[in-house]
Amino acid sequence: MSVHPAEFRAAIGQFATGVTVVTALDGDKPVGITVNAFASMSLEPPLVAIALDRRRYIVPMVEATGRYAVNVLAEDQQWLSDCFAGANVTPSRAAFCGASWFPGQTGLPLIGGTTASLECRVVQRIELGDHLVFVASVEAATVAEPDAPPLLYHRRRYLRIERASTAQVAGKPESAGDAGD
Ligand SMILES: Cc1cc2nc3c(=O)[nH]c(=O)nc-3n(C[C@H](O)[C@H](O)[C@H](O)COP(=O)(O)O)c2cc1C
Prior knowledge:
The protein has 181 residues and is mainly beta. It has helices spanning 5-12, 59-65, 78-84; strands spanning 17-18, 20-26, 29-35, 38-42, 47-53, 67-72, 101-103, 109-111, 116-128, 131-143, 152-154, 157-159. The structure holds flavin mononucleotide (FMN).
């Protein structure tokens, strides 16, 4: 018995994730791609994994250098998710989406304004169906904006954490007819 891709996609789409941009170096040039197939794998030692479609343009760079960084996007960085997923925007992904970046502790390109970043070295490459899984050890981890809300992804749409709330009024609430009282 096998599950139809559309059924699989629909079921997996119910699982909400964060959104990351995985960056790497092409020579001394930063490159990046939007990835939500990212997971923490082990605490001691610290290991993470990303799954990339074999056709992704960044795969040769990750394979050549054996390194990548995971940049966890904040909710105001949806435009970066779109651009690094190849949206038709200017500046384009070829121009690193015009994103501000700086070299991290290991020299990998880190994007400014993200909530956190992880600099990783590949320890295992697994061929898995149409994807490649890159398991990596975390060589540096930074929490830049601990309180910035994350960008979320659910059912192929972006999702934000709702912060609106209501609270009981303790004083005298205004009533119709005496507004402004
Ligand atoms: C929110 C989001 C999450 C994505 N996650 C992944 C992923 O985990 N792995 C992957 O291979 N592609 C993922 N993609 C798709 C790639 O970002 C996008 O298709 C790719 O950058 C297109 O360029 P390329 O095929 O030329 O490399 C995701 C796209 C979006 C919008």
